[in-house]
Amino acid sequence: MQQIGASPLPDTTGYRVTLRDRTTETVFGSDAFCHERVMTTFYRTANTRGAVDCWATPLASFRTDEILMVRRLDGIDGSPMTAGSDLLAEAS
What we know:
Elements: E1 2-4, E2 13-19, E3 24-28, E4 32-36, E5 39-44, E6 57-63, E7 67-74, E8 79-80, E9 86-89
Parallel strand pairs: 1-3
Antiparallel strand pairs: 2-3, 2-7, 4-5, 5-6, 7-8, 7-9
């Protein structure tokens, strides 16, 4: 498992991305993601809205057709959220 972004702090969130080859990538510090044509990009928005705008900082991008699942992580231990944590499943 590869980690992208700064070391997690207690209030840090992020995403764990499972790719088609079953490897996982962890993007710490990201609080939003967006599909951009053939890529899915993870952003740090630094605002309470979680909106991706011109001030959002891109942290990592993956080919959308390579993503099987995206799971939001909360806290320092990187544990998945319990309810509604599977945000993207089985990209076609």
